[in-house]
């Protein structure tokens, strides 16, 4: 599970993800300087740290490196959500609470996502309960 990015790491990765191409420290620096005062060496250190952590790969280009994201922002967000959900002692309640926090736009995105994955879910083999019986069937003595 990826560790949540720090504020400056996130600012750098946001650019790498948005641009979706190999980028240099200088390019990221110039874009960051539009919203804050920051030194070249600071951006260089952050990008080196992101490389060491496996967030970006880099290739030598003359005397500099070009950095490329290893995965997408969507994959990063999904991993963070999965980690948070898996830590819950009541995953169903956590989901209900999460859905309650969603904006109308987020709920629509959720509906779209469910429409996309629903066909794959219906083709998946039936889950089994702890006793090995299919999860969607009641045990014979349940009276159902």
From TrEMBL:
**Which SUPFAM superfamilies does the record match to this protein?**
Winged helix' DNA-binding domain
Kindly give the Pfam families that the UniProt entry links to this protein.
Answer: Penicillinase_R (PF03965)
Does the record bear Transcription in its keywords?
A: yes
* Keyword Cytoplasm part of the UniProt annotation: no
Q: Which InterPro entries match?
A: BlaI_family, WH-like_DNA-bd_sf, WH_DNA-bd_sf
- Ranges for region Disordered: 122-144
Which keywords label this protein?
DNA-binding, Transcription, Transcription regulation
Q: Which family does it belong to?
A: Belongs to the BlaI transcriptional regulatory family.
Q: What is this protein called?
A: BlaI/MecI/CopY family transcriptional regulator
